[in-house]
Amino acid sequence: MIESYIPIFLVFGFAILFSLAVVFSSSLFGPQRPNAEKMTTYESGVKPIGLANERVSVKYYLVAMLFIIFDLEVIFVYPWAVKFKSLYAQQGIQVFWAMIVFLTVFEVGFLYAFKKGGFKWD
Amino acid sequence: MEVILFAVFASIAVVSSVLVVTRRNPVIAALCLILNFGSLAGMYLLLSAQFIAVVQIIVYAGAIMVLFLFVLMLLRPDMERSFFRHDPLFKWAAIIVSVFTFLLLVYAIILTTFNAPILANHAKTIEIGTVEAIGKELFSNFLLPFEAIGFVLLSATVGAMLLSKKKLD
Amino acid sequence: MNDFLFYIIVALVKIVIIANMILITVSYLVYFERKISAWTQNRVGPNRVGYLGLLQPFADVLKLLLKEDIVPKVANKFIHSMAPFIALFVAFTTYAVIPFGPSITLWGKEIPLMMADVNIGILYVLALTSIGVYAITFAGWSSGSKYSLLGGIRSSAQMISYEISMGFSIAGVLIFSQSLRPMEIVIAQHGWMWNAVLQPVGFLTFVVAAFAETNRLPFDLPEAEPELVGGYHTEYSSMKFAAFFLAEYANMIIGSAMIVTLYLGGWQFPYVETFGFSPAVTIGLQVGAFFVKMGALLFFFIWVRWSIPRFRYDQLMNIGWKVMFPLSLLNLIWAAILAMIMK
After folding, report:
1. Structural domains of chain A, ranges and CATH numbers in brackets
2. Residues 85-104, chain A, touching B (beta carbon < 8 A)
3. Pairwise CA distance, residues C218 & C84, whole Å
4. C-alpha to C-alpha distance for C166 and C132, rounded to whole angstroms
């Protein structure tokens, strides 16, 4: 089993070496003449005011939280989708309704979030 | 072969988890935690749990750590420092919790019987870890728990909405 | 042991070939993007370096290589270099499960024309896509610039929103292939049983999600120039900038390859078996069919970029959650009903 993953590990090794080479090649070949002005951040040509650690809107956290939940739902759909045809041949329509019930229960949550304005951006 | 791979994954896991604890910068710690999840996925692969391995990456490294990072970006270095440094209570609580967790792990390892038959039945182990086997089990023997998960996820959605409701209204 | 050694060598040869192919395709994709944009806007485009400007990509790389690598003082240096690393790493590992042809037989051994035919297949791509979000998040956070931070956090929220509809669209495909293996997904689409024909809505949601995941127009909010300057890579220069650039185009290639594999029949050339060619020619035609489909999609990517204006951020999130997600869900149910009818 693990043998079939060896090419993937080799690809990982190659990608790590290649990416490191690209990222650090400019510090090898490029000139290094830093000065104070060059090393400030860009702020439309005026002097940077403050640091970039302002708080961001709570909506981003809400999206991240909802993403975790929806991602879990997707994960539960995959085993069903892969086995759907063979389970349908064995058990009949029951396997279809099993997923419909699961999705319906879940979509109640989606509609709740929708009604509460969880996906509202302004 | 598997021993070498296990050594690689285990050492990455150990080093990265030590770095998670010792790094002062929370974002670097988060990066190390992602690396740790990756090496854990590698170890699941060695145990022939292919679907679990990829779910580990998708859910833990891909979804939960994004939320972690969003929260870390909310922290301001100045405020966070005053919050963590000057409270010895936190330190002692952390030490006690980690010592007990460690003892619990040792206890669990001692109690485990590493019985040979599981290792001998290699082909069967590989089959159990595939997505097909999980789908078959989930929808023939574990249908009710599966539907219950729908309700758990529903309550999580409602909870997430309630947590951020104040700001949205 | 000898078989094992052969297996490793074949894998290494494939890595070298595919990586070079991606690099060359990326260089000329950039060239064609500039040329096509020039034709769209009635200009000439790059035409100075070499015949018809064909050496332009190499000149660009050389220029970027010899530029100074500027890291802002307020930046976190380690994370600042990790971000382009992650972007490139993801772009150069995702291709591992994409089949670009059927199996060939060399020296009495069967070699599938893909890196690794593993059981989790398509989920491997999804896992790496979810890791790719960190490149942008880290780049935005570590630069210490407001534009970068805003671009980074917007872009991560965008990518995770579209990953959901992407996941559901893939589930619709899995119902017909009954496997996560890309090779079997392709084989399940023999003849004209392409998933794009069977589930057009899923095809649509997947293509839109692919555009959003690769941060291409009309979804290139993270680098919306008028409001965010360069977005998450405002503070990147030299080869680190080139790494993001390279990753974006490599992701475009992977994205089109994924669309072809999942929805357009992969390397299937409809009715090629009935033409009566020799096996070698048949395989050649099939590999050719894969690259022709992929090239057409890449042209489509560029065409869309130069024809459609950018969405506003609220529109983008609305489309992701209120349109694409329900559509991909309906597509899943449609696919299940279709599978029951076609039984």
Report:
1. 2-115 (1.20.58.1610)
2. 86-87, 91, 95, 98, 101-103
3. 23
4. 15
SS3 of residue C294 by DSSP: helix
Question: A73: how many CB neighbours lie within 10 A of its CB?
Answer: 23
SS3 (DSSP) at B87:
coil
Instruction: Report the alpha-carbon distance of residue C46 to residue C50 in Å, rounded.
Output: 10
Is residue B43 within 8 Å of residue B125, measured between CB atoms? no
Q: Note which residues in 262-291 of chain C have CB less than 8 A from chain B.
A: none
Local structure of C26: helix, strand or coil: helix
Chains touching chain C, criterion 3+ CB pairs below 8 Å: A, B
What secondary structure letter does DSSP report for C229?
T
**Token digits of residue C320:** 């992701």
Q: List all residues 6 or more positions away from C248 whose beta carbon is below 8 Å from its beta carbon.
A: C214, C215, C216
**Rounded Cα gap, residues C140 and C154, in angstroms:** 10
CA angle centred on C222, ends C221 and C226, rounded to 5°: 65
Buried b (16+ CB within 10 A) or exposed e, B131-167: bbbbbbebbeeebeebeebbeebbebbeebbeebeee
Q: What is the pLDDT along chain C (343 residues), one digit of tens a residue?
A: 577 888 888 888 888 888 888 888 888 888 888 888 888 888 888 888 878 888 888 888 888 888 888 888 777 888 888 889 999 999 989 888 888 888 777 776 777 778 888 888 889 998 998 898 888 888 888 887 778 888 888 888 888 888 889 999 999 999 888 888 888 888 888 877 888 888 899 999 999 999 888 888 777 766 666 666 667 777 787 888 888 888 888 999 999 999 999 998 888 888 877 777 787 888 888 888 899 999 999 999 888 888 888 888 888 888 888 888 999 999 999 998 988 887 6
The Cβ-side half-sphere exposure at C232, using a 13 Å CA radius, reads 29
| ipTM score over 0.95, yes or no | no
Indicate the residue of B126, B140, B157 with minimum beta-carbon distance to A113: B157
Distance CA A115, CA B162 (A): 12
Q: What six digits make up the tokens of C286?
A: 């099939």
Task: Please give the structure tokens belonging to residue A111.
Answer: 């509609």
Query: What is the interface size between B and C, counted as CB pairs within 8 Å?
Result: 67
Structural domains of chain B in order of their starting residue, each with its CATH number: 2-129 (1.20.120.1200)
For residue B132, what are the CA distances in angstroms to A21, A42, B50, B168, C177?
40, 52, 11, 42, 12
Is C64 an 8 Å CB contact of chain B? no
C79: left (phi over 0), alpha (psi -120 to 50) or beta: alpha
Under 8 Å between Cβ of C57 and C28: yes
Amino acid at C321: W
pTM for this one?
0.89
Is C317 part of the contact surface with chain B (CB cutoff 8 Å)?
no
Select from C14, C171, C239 the Cβ nearest to the Cβ of A81.
C171
Nearest CA in chain B to A55: B74
State the alpha helices, DSSP H only, in chain A.
Answer: 6-29, 58-91, 94-115
- By the 8 A CB rule, do C202 and C195 touch? yes
Instruction: Tell me which H or E stretch contains C147.
Output: helix C146-177
Judged by DSSP in three states, C277 sits in coil
Sequence spans of domains, chain C: 67-342
Distance of CA C143 to the CA centre of its chain: 26
